[in-house]
């Protein structure tokens, strides 16, 4: 009988952790799931659009859409994913409702930075 109680407690705490994780992810923003650890930028943007209804606006020459990116996990919160991917390729992003606008990262003015 004690083993059954222990099993039930373990199972219930696992379910509670899973529900808590899902709820906190939903509060933080849309969740994106990837089936592969390596994808092209074009495929990554397509997956995001399909799973969230987000559309991307950018100049076609802004980055190489066939560049492969390595993902270190299967599930990302939208903002986390956008930060990770676009930081790697030096592109900034701004979200306006269901539109993400991509632009070239502005270079840091080293003269202003050194005058502190």
Q: Mind explaining what this structure looks like?
A:
The chain has helices at 2-28, 41-52, 78-88, 110-114, and strands spanning 31-33, 38-40, 55-57, 68-70, 75-77, 91-96, 99-104. It has 116 residues and is α+β, with helices and mostly antiparallel strands. It has a domain at 30-106: 3-Layer(bab) Sandwich (Phage tail protein beta-alpha-beta fold).
Q: Calculate the terminal CA-CA distance, rounded to whole Å.
A: 69 Å
Count of helices? 4
Biggest β-sheet: strands ordered side by side in the sheet: 3-7-6
How many β-strands, per DSSP?
7
- Within the CATH hierarchy, at the fold level, what is the topology of one domain? Phage tail protein beta-alpha-beta fold
> Low-confidence parts lasting 5 or more residues at pLDDT below 50?
14-26
**Helix proportion range:** 40-55%
Shape: elongated
Q: Encode the helix/strand succession as letters.
A: HEEHEEEHEEH
User: What is the correct CATH architecture of one domain?
Assistant: 3-Layer(bab) Sandwich
Q: Biggest sheet: strands, sense, closure? A: 3 strands, mixed
Mind telling me the CATH class of one domain?
A: Alpha Beta
| Structural class by sheet pairing and helices | alpha+beta
Give the overall pLDDT as a whole number. 81
Classify the beta-strand content into a percent band. 15-25%
- Over all CA atoms, what is the radius of gyration? 20 Å
